[in-house]
């Protein structure tokens, strides 16, 4: 049932009319081919062959009942005619009887009268012919209706196995699987970072800003959190355009202050490190409430193990195509960067990796497709220097340059939905595109 097909741009897309929908695409390094997931259209149920069959049958039933009505009307009209002529027939019959018993009684006038009466009855012949035809038609229709009810019963039996709601649920599930499948197909190794685009200059030297990292999401809101020390005020803008212009925002006052700039918004909730603790808090924006908080066991905090720029950046939360992550370190790990994959509902740690890279020497880090990329500085001349692959628990030194325009990066996070890097650079909110090198498969699940 699941279908993930990677097609090349040159290939013909199945058209939506054929019941197929194209989900999304991701460009490769040269923009040469597009990786696309095609899936049955959302209204797949309508296009189900059984539904089509059922619709045809309904139409047939409608056609038949229309025919029946016509037949009924004709029968009624004809019956009237037959009734009217009945008395006439009786008269003719009586006259014929008299004439046959007493031929002499049939004078020319009487003969003419009888002839006229028979002429009047002549139209009855086609009516009777029609009756014979109708009788045949009724027989055929009856057979057809009988056939039909058998087919309908068979279909009903088959459909009984999954009712409509269940079918819809299956489609939704398939859709979710396709989205994650699409994301994995679009995944790859970071090979380049574009020139920066400065979206806005706002706030102090240190801070954090973001959009929702959940895939799929139609949430366009932008959040901004100025400062790294004991902040509680989160500004929420309706759209990126509103953020750019500094208009249309609401404020959230967090029940507990934050530390650092490693916050992330995932599926409508803000995940952040509680001030002077290694507690992670999940704050739900819509209900303006804390859904869960949990200590990240052993994680250093209170500016014990920050990135090179300091600022209580001990615990850095982030999300990529694979879900939610925490990047931090512990005393047993001797200050080397540790990665933990987190369960977004309970904040439980699912799996942990020790990268061996000293956190103090890292400017920032961000996760793309399950790989952690680490910069070697927050200052001018910084580059992406180290990559840790969680899929193979291995690392590699890299040399990926990027333009650090304002020379002081205090936040750098990848948004998997938009495939861009969000950074806070010396009071500027800056975006970068990323180039991911990917091996395009021609088919697979
Ligand atoms: C119903 O009648 C219409 C018009 O006579 C015809 O075009 C159509 O094919 C019929 N449908 C079925 C299912 O027999
Ligand atoms: C009814 O079904 C039988 C057996 O499938 C078939 O031979 C017959 O032609 C059908 N009758 C009609 C009116 O469709
Ligand atoms: C691990 O992930 C990287 C990209 O993040 C990818 O290039 C590499 O092929 C993956 N390795 C395996 C064994 O899947
Ligand atoms: C996203 O949040 C909704 C409720 O707001 C929840 O039902 C859903 O399971 C969450 N999805 C994920 C992947 O966490
Ligand atoms: C955090 O650090 C500050 C300044 O170094 C210190 O005064 C405070 O006691 C520390 N708090 C905790 C909970 O470690
Ligand atoms: C990223 O690429 C897209 C498409 O080429 C472009 O519209 C957008 O402005 C770019 N963004 C950045 C930050 O370079």
From TrEMBL:
One of its GO terms (cellular component) is extracellular space. The keyword Coiled coil applies. It is found in: Secreted; Synapse. Pfam families: Noelin-1, OLF. GO terms for biological process: signal transduction. Residues 186-438 form the Olfactomedin-like domain. Transmembrane segments: none annotated. The keyword RNA-binding does not apply. Disulfide bonds join 187-369. This is Noelin-2-like. It comes from the Eukaryota. It comes from Echeneis naucrates (Live sharksucker). SMART domains: OLF. Keywords: Coiled coil, Disulfide bond, Glycoprotein, Secreted, Signal, Synapse.
């Amino acid at each position: 049932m699941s279908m993930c097909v990677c097609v090349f741009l040159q290939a013909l897309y199945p058209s939506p009319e054929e019941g197929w929908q194209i989900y999304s695409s991701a460009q490769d390094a040269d923009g040469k081919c597009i990786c696309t997931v095609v899936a049955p259209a959302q209204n797949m149920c309508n296009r189900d062959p059984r539904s089509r069959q059922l619709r045809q049958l309904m139409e047939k039933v409608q056609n038949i009942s229309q025919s029946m009505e016509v037949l009924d009307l004709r029968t009624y009209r004809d019956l009237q005619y037959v009734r009217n002529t009945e008395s006439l027939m009786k008269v003719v019959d009586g006259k014929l009887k008299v004439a046959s018993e007493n031929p002499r009684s049939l004078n020319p006038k009487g003969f003419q009268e009888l002839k006229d009466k028979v002429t009047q009855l002549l139209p009855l012949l086609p009516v009777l012919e029609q009756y014979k035809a109708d009788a045949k038609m009724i027989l055929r229709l009856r057979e057809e209706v009988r056939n039909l009810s058998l087919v309908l019963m068979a279909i009903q039996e088959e459909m009984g196995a999954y009712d409509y709601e269940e079918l819809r649920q299956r489609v939704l599930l398939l859709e979710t699987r396709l989205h994650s499948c699409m994301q994995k197909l679009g995944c790859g190794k970071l090979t380049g970072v574009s020139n920066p685009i400065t979206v806005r200059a706002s706030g102090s030297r240190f801070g954090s800003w973001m959009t929702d990292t959940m895939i799929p999401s139609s949430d366009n809101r932008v959040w901004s959190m100025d400062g790294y020390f004991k902040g509680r005020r989160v500004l929420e803008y309706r759209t990126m355009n509103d953020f750019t212009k500094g208009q249309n925002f609401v404020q959230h006052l967090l029940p507990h202050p934050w530390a650092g700039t490693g916050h992330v918004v995932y599926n409508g909730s803000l995940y952040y490190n509680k001030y002077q603790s290694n507690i992670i808090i999940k704050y739900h924006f819509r209900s303006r409430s804390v859904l869960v908080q949990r200590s990240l066991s052993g994680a250093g905090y209170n500016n014990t193990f920050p990135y090179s720029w300091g600022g209580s950046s001990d615990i850095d939360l982030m999300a990529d195509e694979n879900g939610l992550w925490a990047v931090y370190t512990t005393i047993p790990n001797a200050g080397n960067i540790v990665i933990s994959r987190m369960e977004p509902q309970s904040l439980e740690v699912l799996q942990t990796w020790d990268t061996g890279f000293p956190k103090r020497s890292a400017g920032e880090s961000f996760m793309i497709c399950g790989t952690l990329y680490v910069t070697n500085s927050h200052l001018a001349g910084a580059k992406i220097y180290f990559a840790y692959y969680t899929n193979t628990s291995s690392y590699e030194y890299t040399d990926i340059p990027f333009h650090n325009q304002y020379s002081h990066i205090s936040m750098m996070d990848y948004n998997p939905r938009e495939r861009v890097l969000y950074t806070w650079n010396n009071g500027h909110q800056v975006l970068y595109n990323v180039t991911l090198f990917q091996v395009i498969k021609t088919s697979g699940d």
